[in-house]
Write a structure and sequence with these properties.
By secondary structure, the protein is an alpha/beta fold. It has helices spanning 3-7, 51-60, 77-84, 107-112, 125-144, 174-184, 193-200, 210-222; strands at residues 19-23, 44-48, 65-69, 71-72, 75-76, 94-100, 117-121, 147-149, 154-157, 162-165, 168-171, 190-191, 228-231, 235-238. The protein has a 5-stranded parallel β-sheet, sandwiched between helices.
């Protein structure tokens, strides 16, 4: 990780009030990461020299932005990325992989795995500043997407996995929340049981078909009647108008 990146002086305005995790076995002086711009209260940095240490930190502290070296002593950056992303759940963080010029071969595969950016180091302060500005804009967009208004009565909080109906708030299990979000973002679309299973449980090939039905049943008991409707012999549809679907 080059000095321009480490000092933070080349992007002092972009990460203010953000929590940033640096995962690198080359971090040898955390003071180098402090943002020193006098007009910026600065980001809150955390540091890990291995994937295991990063996992420990992520259990106790939510991060907005994660920079992870491509190769660490105990694994690959994509190992951590795959653990942090789940089917049906849209991450509330950005994950950037940092790599040396000799590791440029990995850029396409890393981005296909879901990384938000791939930064080769060392790079010039000017180039890094532009990349950080772009990441900052994406962080702002993520923040605006954290609340999903389903109807005038119902909303979802992505950050807290909660369902709010009028003045009542309920924390949903992860799978139920993922299904409800899938429906809410695709109103009027028919989903078969197999489509729901594939999007929410895509790693569980032996899933009992009735498991989807049970989760739908639970969601119906927690939401407004008629919101999730059964289309006989086909699947389920999310109907915000609560009109009967034939």
């Amino acid at each position: 990780m080059n000095k321009a990146f480490a000092s933070g002086k080349c992007y002092p305005m972009y990460l203010a009030q953000k929590k940033v995790l640096i995962v690198s076995n080359r971090v040898d002086n955390t003071n180098n990461f402090e943002l020193t711009h006098p007009l910026n209260p600065g980001a809150v940095f955390s540091f890990a020299d291995s994937l295991d240490r990063a996992r420990e930190l992520l259990k106790t502290e939510k991060q907005h932005l994660i920079f992870c070296d491509l190769i660490l002593s105990d694994g690959d950056a994509t190992d951590l990325l795959s653990e942090m992303t789940r089917p049906g759940i849209i991450p509330s963080f950005l994950f950037c992989v940092t790599a040396s010029q000799e590791q440029s071969y990995a850029e396409n595969s890393v981005l296909k795995e879901g990384a938000d950016d791939f930064i080769q180091t060392p790079c010039s302060p000017k180039v890094l500043s532009k990349r950080m500005a772009a990441l900052s804009r994406r962080l702002k967009k993520i923040k605006t997407e954290q609340n999903i208004n389903i109807t005038d009565q119902i909303s979802l909080s992505v950050d807290g996995h909660t369902l709010s109906i009028n003045d009542n708030t309920l924390t949903l299990p992860r799978r139920e929340f993922a299904i409800l979000r899938l429906f809410a973002e695709n109103p009027g679309r028919l989903f078969t049981r197999e489509e729901i299973r594939r999007q929410i449980w895509n790693e569980d090939h032996g899933l009992n078909p009735r498991t989807v039905d049970v989760h739908i049943y639970n969601l119906r008991n927690k939401t407004i009647p008629g919101l999730i409707q059964t289309v006989q012999g086909k699947g389920y549809i999310f109907n915000k108008q609560h009109k009967k679907v034939k």
